[in-house]
Amino acid sequence: MSSSPKKDWSATQYLKFGDQRTRAVRDLLSAVPLTSPTRIVDLGCGPGNSTEVLVARYPNAAISGMDSSSDMLSKAAAALPGIDFVKGDLTTYEPPPGTDLLFSNAVFQWLPGPARIPTLARLIKTLPSGGVIAIQVPDNFHERSHRLMRETAADGPWAGILSKLNPERDPIAAPVTFYNELKPLCKSVDIWHTHYQHVLEGPEAIVEWVKGTGLRPFVDPLDEGMREGFLEAYLERIAEAYPRLHDGKVMLTYPRLFLVAVKA
Fold first, then answer.
1. Long-range Cβ contact pairs of 237-241 (< 8 A, separation 24 or more)
2. Do 3 and 90 form a contact (C-beta atoms < 8 A)?
3. Cα–Cα distance between 174 and 130 in angstroms, integer?
């Protein structure tokens, strides 16, 4: 969350689906090869849900969190009062000396596409030999949930406002691009995709999910009336695109890209 829209993040909105969001944190951390890192930074720590998983895995490490959102940092500090949380920008942040694990859950997608891999490379260079950077990003540019954001943005009284802002995040680069750019700096670069299938109560829940993340650049620039109109139009499209399951719920497919790189 280090390159957020103008309005601050809402930790409360984000944590409405905290258990589902944190599942990817655990999956990423399970692939980190370090058994006893000395110093860990949770890049884009959000409300501290990822930091809490790191603390449980590495209780003897010096762990800190960084985020660009004051609301997220406040929530994180309240949840984990013994952890040092600092405000920063991912593109310029310098990890403390001795950091040997950089961990990042759902952050790098907020950077402009051309800045993502260079920022990763810069951060890898700060690590000692054998140090690890582990990241996870949503890779859902082509999913119905996000395609319908773009369609809704182009069809309504808000279209003139949003067309000038490019609210959709740039697509995530292909795994081969990450590998080819980062491997010269690394002993190993492990990359994989996971498609999560989140069963939610209904189409309204899908809208609530993305309101905490990907939908924000679309609705934050709008006044209250336009915002409500946009959400209603988007919900109509979502309800049509996601048919009810046998029990009346809906299934949100959510692909994520994972990368664990070990510094040469």
1. 237/148, 237/151, 237/152, 238/144, 238/145, 238/148, 238/203, 238/206, 238/207, 239/203, 241/144, 241/148
2. yes
3. 25
Range of the domain at 179: 11-263
pTM summary value: 0.90
pLDDT, tens digit, 9 for 90 and up, residues 124-143: 999 999 999 999 999 999 99
Q: What is the pLDDT of residue 11?
A: 46
How many helices (H) and strands (E) in the chain? 11, 7
Domains in the chain: how many in total? Answer: 1
Whether 168 is in a domain gets the answer yes
d(CA 86, CA 213): 21
Beta strands in the chain, from DSSP E residues, in sequence order: 39-43, 62-67, 84-87, 101-105, 132-138, 186-200, 250-263
